Amino acid sequence: MTREQLNHLLDRPACDPRLWLLDPKVVFLNHGSFGSCPRPVLDFQRGIRDRLERQPVQFFVCDLERLLDEARGALAEFLGADAADLVFMPNATSGVNSVLRSLQFKHGDVAEVPFPLDEAKEVVDAVLSRVTARTRLALLDHVTSQTGLVLPIQLLVERLAERGVDALVDGAHAPGMVPVNLRKLGATYYAGNCHKWICAPKGAGFLYVQRARQKSIRPLSISHGANSPRTDRSRFLIEFGWTGTWDPSACLSVPEALRFVGSLLPGGWPAVMRRNRHLALAAQKIICKTLRIDLPCPDELIGSFASIPLPDALDEKPSSSPLYLDPLQDKLLAKNRIELPIIPWPAPPKRLLRVSAQLYNSLPQYERLARVLEHLLD
Question: Would you say residue 129 has pLDDT above 90?
Answer without folding.
Answer: yes
